[in-house]
Structure formats: C-alpha cells, structure tokens
Design a protein that fits this description.
Layout (H helix, E strand, L loop, with lengths): L11 E5 L7 E6 L30 H13 L1 H21 L5 E9 L11 E12 L4 H67 L6 H34 L6 H6 L17 H7 L1 H21 L5 E12 L9 E10 L7 H67 L5 H35 L20
Antiparallel strand pairs: 1-2, 3-4, 4-5, 5-6
Length: 470
C-alpha cells in the first residue's frame, strides 16, 4: 500500500499502470489540512502504552471482561469471517495470472449392425491463458488486496469499539453498584432517624411532623434501590452478551462493588498525523479508497484488447495398449477487442469513478471524525478531573454537615428539617462524586479509543504490502 502523504492541496488520486504490471496507487492525498498540533493538549510522545489501555484502570473484572470480549465476541467472529472471505477472494483474483488446465477422457463403443466390437478410448488436455497485457487481472488483484486490508482494518476497528463498549459498560456497572451500596447504607441511617423521631414523639419532645418527614425521606431513598438494581442487571447482562456468554455470572461478580476505576494521567500524546496512522478506521477507509481506484483501472481495461493463448493435446485408440501411439495437438492465440456494447463498459467506468469519489469522501470523513473524537475526549477528561475534585470537596463538606446535624438532632439542639436537608445533601453529593468518578474513567476510555488504542497491527491478517506503519 502506498504510504501516507498529508498536504494542504486538493485531493488527487493517481493510479499508475504499466504494461504487464500490477497497478499500484502512486499517491493518496485526502485534501485535508491535518493540523500539526492539538488544540486542547500539548503535543508530546504518548506517556502510556494504549494497546491494552483497559489494564491501566487497575480493575481485574474490567480487564477480564474486556479480554474475554476480544476472544468471544460474536460480532468480532463475524468480522473475522469476512476477513477470511476477503483472503479467499484475493487468492481467486491471483489465480487469474495462471493458465487454466483441464483434462478429459472417454471410453465408448459403437452400437448397430455395422458397429465394431472394439472399445474406443480417448484422452485429452486443454490449456487457456489470458495475457494480462493491459493490467485487467492486475487491477483485480490490487482491488482484492485492498479489500483484504480494509476487512482487516474493519476487524481491528470493531475490536477497538467493542473493547471500549465493554470497558464503558463495566465502569457504569461499577458506578451503579457503588450508588446502590450508598443507597442501602443511607437507608439504614434513615431507619435510625425514623426510630429516633418516633422516640422523641413518644417522649413529647417533638410533634408527629418529624416522624412523617422521616418516613417520606426513607421511602424516597428506598424507591431508588429497585431502579438501581434494575440498571445494574441491565448493564451486567449487556456485558454478558458482549463477552459471548449467558446472563448471570457477570451480575454476580459486579454486586458488592465498592469502587470506581481510577484512570492514570495522560501527560500528552503524539501529533495528529501520528495518531491518525494508529486509527484502524482511518486506515481502513484508505484501503477502501485503494480498492475503488484499482477497480477504475479494471473497468477501463475492458476497452483494451484481450489476448488469450491456448492449446489442446489428445490421443485416441481402439485399445489401451496403443493409446499413446498417436498424439495430436494444436496451439492457438486469439485477440479480442470490444467494439460496441451499448455503453455498458463506459457506464461501469463511470460507476467505478463515482464509487472512488465516495470512498474519498469516506476517508476524509474518517480523518475529521478521528480529530474531533480526540479533541472532544481530551476536553472531557480534563473537565472530568476538575469535577471529581470539586465533588470530592462537596462530599466532604456534606458528610461533616450531616454528622453535625445528626448529633445535634439527637441532643435536641436542632429540628428535624435541618437533619433531612443535611442528609439529602450528603446523598446527592456522594452520588454526584461517584458519577463524576465514572465519567472520568469513561472519558479516559474514550480518549484512549480516539488515540487508536485497543489493537495491534501485528494481530491482524493483513498483506504486508497493505500495512501502513507509523
């Protein structure tokens, strides 16, 4: 495959062909001014190896689920089958370079009054070879080779997306399980508050309003638990499907979670052009463009002369013993030239050129989409870090406030309304902190995905000539 060349000029797709040679794409220019640096971060060598970025979250369950998905995900299995299909098609295209040989044989006997009693034996062989003088077969091979590369990159990109889905789902499940544990702990505290309020009413210290407020607060908290349990089960079941197993085991493993993964810091990453080289979707879009341009030449070759060489050899005899006494054969060559087909071939050329224009647009879109994802994910991660710090401070203050309000209420120094407000603020602050931690871990996953993490070029069955190395 041709190497990458980024420029600020217009898009140009040049297809170089020479007699008796396989067409190769000489230059691929996306026509997009790829920036030299990122807007939202400093350009630096990647501080982390992002190939298996999920391990950097230091969550054994998340790592287990993600790596199981790589092996057992059924969408990946379908994509792998498409790669093998493309590989077989490439072998079929390459077979066009070789002659076709066929053999035949027969044995017969005449029937009738004047028929001879002897059996008639015959053997023969035919050979046909199409000379690829004008690159028709070579164009087909080049297109099939690019199709194989595109299928391999598609498989790699699907792994990038599937592993990201599993990691994001595991993070969300962790956060939901933590929030569920918080709700249950809060419910126990509110049970105690309700009991204290009842004792104080019985002692004549407060009115029954405190009891009703405590009941209302407890019921609202209890009502969140079934929803959280349902959300946790749904997320766990989705993970089960992604890793290719029935529901049940994943949910059991996630229940009782007491933490949300804490991602490491990314100090900076490589320049945009280098990141784009690691993106399998961008590389796959380029491979599809290569295939489309090769098919243009294949369509144009139909307008040029077609040369075939062939030959036959055979023998026949009335007995096996002298079957090879007389052998005959012939060689022949033919030249064909399309004169008129009602515009069908020109229509095929126009169709191939339109497909190439569409592939070029898809390549450009993949480049712009990759740049957008990196910039957005970088901002999300930085802002998520800020939110975690702020919500941590809010939780600390709300926790201290709730402790003070509870002790003051038990001592009769404040009314129940202050206690309710403090504990509601505590629950809200804790849930917000968990959500912010989950969003930070999710932003890390999205950023590492955008940077091309989650796959390794050597893991995929691509032709050596179709690999684009950084």
């Amino acid at each position: 495959m041709a190497g990458w060349r980024w420029s600020h000029g217009t898009a140009a797709i040049a297809l170089a062909t020479t007699a008796c040679a396989t067409p190769e794409v000489a230059t691929l220019d996306p026509g997009i001014a790829v920036p030299a640096r990122w807007v939202e971060t400093d350009v630096a060598a990647a501080s982390l190896d992002l190939t298996a970025y999920w391990r950097l979250l230091d969550d054994p369950l998340l790592t287990e689920f993600t790596e199981l998905a790589v092996v057992r995900n059924l969408d990946l299995a379908q994509a792998a089958a498409r790669v093998e299909q493309a590989r077989a098609q490439l072998r079929g295209a390459r077979a066009g370079y070789f002659p076709q040989l066929s053999a035949n044989g027969s044995v017969g006997r005449d029937i009738g009054d004047l028929a001879r009693d002897d059996l008639q034996f015959s053997l023969g062989a035919d050979a046909n070879w199409e000379v690829d003088l004008f690159g028709s077969i070579g164009a087909d091979v080049a297109a099939s080779r690019a199709d194989l590369a595109a299928a391999g990159y598609s498989l790699a990109d699907l792994q990038r997306l599937i592993t990201g889905q599993v990691a994001l789902a595991a993070i969300q499940a962790r956060a939901t399980a933590v929030q569920l544990a918080v709700a249950r702990e809060t419910l126990l505290i509110q049970d105690e508050n309700l009991q204290i309020a009842r004792w104080r009413v019985e002692a004549g210290l407060v009115s029954s309003l405190d009891v009703e407020q405590a009941r209302s607060q407890r019921a609202q908290t209890a009502a969140t638990i079934p929803l959280l349990e349902s959300n946790l089960a749904a997320t766990a079941n989705a993970i089960s499907t992604l890793i290719g197993e029935p529901p049940g085991r994943v949910l059991a493993l996630l229940e009782g979670t007491d933490f949300v993964p804490d991602p490491p810091a990314i100090a900076g990453f490589e320049a945009p052009a280098e990141v784009l080289r690691r993106r399998p979707d961008v590389r796959g879009a380029e491979a599809s463009l290569l295939s489309s341009t090769a098919r243009i030449e294949g369509a144009r070759a139909q307008l040029l002369p077609l040369i075939r060489l062939g030959g036959t050899i055979g023998t026949s005899s009335s007995g096996i013993d002298n079957l090879f006494d007389l052998i005959t054969g012939n060689l022949f060559a033919s030249v064909g030239q399309l004169i008129f087909d009602g515009g069908r071939t020109h229509a095929q050329i126009d169709s191939a050129e339109a497909a190439a224009q569409g592939a070029l647009a898809a390549w450009r879109l993949s480049i712009l989409g990759a740049l957008e994802e990196v910039e957005t994910a970088a901002v999300d991660l930085r802002k998520a870090d800020e939110r975690v710090v702020l919500f941590g401070e809010a939780f600390d203050a709300a926790n201290n406030s709730a402790l003070l309000a509870r002790s003051q209420y038990q001592a009769g120094l404040t009314d129940f309304r202050n206690l309710l407000t403090s504990e509601n603020q505590l629950l809200s602050a804790r849930n917000s902190q968990v959500s912010a931690e989950a969003e930070r871990a999710s932003a890390f996953v999205r950023l590492t995905q955008a940077l091309g993490g989650g796959w390794q070029p050597t893991d995929y069955p691509l032709p050596v000539s179709d690999r684009i190395e950084p």
